[in-house]
Amino acid sequence: MQIEVVKSKIHRVRVTGADLNYIGSITIDEDLMDAANIIQGEKVQIVNNNNGERLETYAIPGPRGSGELTLNGAAARKVAVGDILILITYAHMPIEEARNFNPALVFPDEATNLLK
């Protein structure tokens, strides 16, 4: 049996931009992506703590050390600059493997989005 489990989470990161005229996706500082084991093009669930919105899109890397977190395309309508988000990715694995799996949990500085 395969189950879906949390693979990674970036907890309480601040929106730095919302670009409605972009094709789509979420731009994430590449340092945060690396720390959370998120790869380019990976599906990301976005939970907005400010308004309760939940959506899914895919990750694209932003400049390292920039703290950038920009929602692009239609997703830009679901956030405001300054909103606090939780980003979650999931993986499918056998239940036996899932019992011992440890997700990558990242808690950046909420003011700057930089790694502590």
Structure description:
The chain is mainly β. The chain has helices at 30-35, 95-100, and strands at residues 2-14, 17-19, 25-29, 43-48, 54-62, 69-72, 84-94, 104-106. The chain has one domain (2-104): Beta Barrel (Barwin-like endoglucanases). The chain has an 8-stranded mixed β-sheet with strand order 2-6-3-5-4-7-1-8. Strand 4 (43-48) and strand 5 form a beta hairpin. It is found in: Cytoplasm. Heterooctamer of four alpha and four beta subunits.
Blueprint (SSEs and pairs):
Blueprint: E1 2-14, E2 17-19, E3 25-29, H1 30-35, E4 43-48, E5 54-62, E6 69-72, E7 84-94, H2 95-100, E8 104-106
Parallel strand pairs: 1-8, 2-6, 3-5
Antiparallel strand pairs: 1-7, 3-6, 4-5, 4-7
Family: Belongs to the PanD family.
GO molecular function: aspartate 1-decarboxylase activity
Subunit structure: Heterooctamer of four alpha and four beta subunits.
Please describe the structure with a list of short key phrases separated by commas or semicolons:
116 residues, mainly beta, Barwin-like endoglucanases, Asp_decarbox, aspartate 1-decarboxylase activity, schiff base, Asp_de-COase-like_dom_sf, pyruvate
In short:
It comes from Robiginitalea myxolifaciens. Its cofactor is pyruvate. The protein has 116 residues and is mostly beta strands.
The termini sit apart by: 38 Å
Number of helices: 2
Q: Nearest-angstrom radius of gyration?
A: 14 Å
Tell me, what is the CATH class? Mainly Beta
What is the H/E order?
A: EEEHEEEEHE
Major sheet description:
8 strands, mixed
**DSSP strand (E) fraction?**
over 45%
**Spatial arrangement of strands, main beta sheet:** 2-6-3-5-4-7-1-8
Secondary structure class reads mainly beta
Approximately how much helix is present in the residues? Answer: 10-25%
Please name the CATH architecture. Beta Barrel
Q: What's the count of strands?
A: 8
